[in-house]
Amino acid sequence: MRKRVLCSLLALCLLLGACGKRQDLSLRENELLAVGDIVCTWPEAQIYILSQYTRYTSSYGSGIWKVELADGTFEQYIRDGLLDYLELLFLADCGARRAGVTLSNAERSSVAHAAEAYMQQLGEEGRAATGITREVAEEAFARFARAQIFYRQTMIDGHVEISDEEARVISLQIVEIEHRAGYAEALRIQTELEKGTQIGEILRGVDGVSVRKENVVRGTYGEEWETVAFALKEGRWSPIISQDTSYYLIQCLSPYVVEETARHKAEMEKSLREENLNSALKELADTVQLIYNPDRWNKWSMQQFGKLPPVNFYDYTAELIK
Predict the structure, then answer these.
(1) How far apart are CA 24 and CA 21, in angstroms?
(2) Which DSSP helix (H) or strand (E) runs through 20?
(3) N or C: which terminus of the chain has fewer CB atoms within 10 Å of its end residue's CB?
(4) Beta bridge partner(s), residue 68
């Protein structure tokens, strides 16, 4: 669950570039950005930066930051993503506060425990170098917890309804005859199939014709093709369908593949929930002012975190994701 939530969050990181306006207005030197009246201070920003440094350095070594990509270094790529991430996280926190979200006693206790464990791992040297205090850490974990509640309320608890018919997966045997083989060849194959002749025998030595079995969902082929396919009864063959550069003859092997339909329905519901979250965040972004401090952001590099303890904020968030 934790990985899914984080992936969903990161997958939405480009949202603000499309719907919110980042304004280079005045912030204090120690403040990085503000979403509405919620301010991300530089010490709090370093919590997330250090997490990324720890994560990638532990996996690939410190040389990863100098790796050249098509559009710059790997460090620049991560820096850009981090700024988008911070904007999105603070926007979600803003949405949670507007919705009246407050943490329960149990959640506040989890926040306190996470902050304490984080600060112990950060150590005196890390605290002195970053300015991260217990108060800053606790607010970061509380913010993360509120954001998760906002995601759940918007993405998971919101109304989502996908019918079994919309999600239905059918199993087909598909004979594809390239147009260059000719319509007469398609008619011949159709006639032989209706006689009950085995496909292998029909297609032996024939060029430009192929056969395959495939599970199909709506949206895979064209409208006419799918209208015919999804109306077929088990065992029945379709009439000849012409689409793009081929003729098709379709046999229904199963009009309802139970396990695949359930899986597809879950995927469709997940996609719809993500659309709901996108819509809610876009609405929110249009109503708040985003202020950005480029001078503060441009003054740091990943190398400055090389001598700090390897602390990852997200290692302490398991109790805040439910």
Answers:
(1) 10
(2) none
(3) N
(4) 73
Query: CA 6, CA 85: separation in Å to the nearest integer?
Result: 10
Per the CB < 8 A criterion, the answer to whether 317 and 114 are in contact is yes
Closest by CA to 165, choosing from 259, 234, 255, is 255
DSSP 139-170: HHHHHHHHHHHHHIIIIISS-----HHHH--E
150-189 in b/e burial notation, b at 16+ Cβ within 10 A? bbebbbeeeeeebeeeebbbbbbbbbbbeeebeeebbeeb
pLDDT, averaged in runs of 10, over the chain (322 residues): 41 40 67 92 96 95 93 93 92 92 95 97 95 97 95 76 93 96 94 90 89 95 94 95 94 96 93 84 86 92 93 94 76
At residue 125, the pLDDT reads 93
Q: Yes or no: say if 159 and 135 are a contact pair by the CB < 8 Å rule.
A: no
What is the DSSP track for 109-124? HHHHHHHHHHHHHHHH
For 65, phi then psi, to 5°, come to -70, -15
286 φ, ψ (degrees, to nearest 5): -75, -10
Burial (Cβ within 10 Å: 0-12, 13-18, ≥19) of residue 223: exposed
β-pair partners for 211: 175
Give the C-alpha distances (Å, rounded to integers) separating 190 from 195, 213, 248: 9, 17, 10
